[in-house]
Amino acid sequence: MKIIGLTGGSGTGKGTVAARMREQGAGWVDADAVYRRLCAENREMLAALDAAFGGVLDGTGALDRPKLARLVFSDPDRLRELNRITNPYIRAASRAAIQAQAACPIVLYDAPTLFEAGADDLCEKTVGVLADTETRVRRVMARDGISEQAARARILAQPDDGFYRARCDHILENNGDLAALWRETDALYTILSKGERK
């Protein structure tokens, strides 16, 4: 089993790339889904978030994710604090989920903060998915039902393209030509399967 890190900012289309590679036989672990599950189940992590950010749990003890998002995406220091608290929990749960798919030749670890969390050390290779800002804004607004201002704030809080180009072994561009993206994704999957460097 090869673990391949899949990363990039909001609205770049990591899920589209993952879906195509899954059709080729790849396993897939979504760090965001792991985080959502932890937010629903892990009382220790939730208590740490509430202590750090104050009042981000609702009356039932569930995490108010929109409230937390408003706090952290407008303040880089608070975003770093969020990652400091959650990353160890996400890493441990993700490792377990990856090992559960050990029968797959490749398992994609789909993680927006792969490098920031230091989780690239789990991966044999890394793939960055990029798209231009306006395309990303439109996608995030449509996907999450948020305003343009909120979408731009989220994107601005994330690393720029240069961050991924400097760190990833492979880059896929996803600016809207789905047929081209699939061709590039299929070619990359073949390379990753053989263990060659692009």
Automatic annotation (TrEMBL):
Q: Which GO terms describe its molecular function?
A: ATP binding; dephospho-CoA kinase activity
Cellular compartments per GO CC: cytoplasm
Family that this chain belongs to: Belongs to the CoaE family.
- Name of the coding gene: coaE
Q: Where in the cell is it found?
A: Cytoplasm
> Which EC numbers characterise this protein's activity in its record?
2.7.1.24
Q: In which pathway does it act?
A: Cofactor biosynthesis; coenzyme A biosynthesis; CoA from (R)-pantothenate: step 5/5
Class of enzymatic activity (EC top level): transferase
Instruction: Provide the catalytic activity annotation.
Output: 3'-dephospho-CoA + ATP = ADP + CoA + H(+)
Q: Which CDD domains match?
A: DPCK
Q: Which domain of life is it from?
A: Bacteria
* UniProt protein name: Dephospho-CoA kinase
Keyword Cytoplasm applies: yes
Q: Which UniProt keywords apply?
A: ATP-binding, Coenzyme A biosynthesis, Cytoplasm, Kinase, Nucleotide-binding, Transferase
Q: Which InterPro entries match?
A: Depp_CoAkinase, P-loop_NTPase
Instruction: Check the UniProt entry and state the signal peptide residues, or none.
Output: none
Summarizing the function annotation, the protein's role is: Catalyzes the phosphorylation of the 3'-hydroxyl group of dephosphocoenzyme A to form coenzyme A.
Q: Name the GO terms of the biological process aspect.
A: coenzyme A biosynthetic process
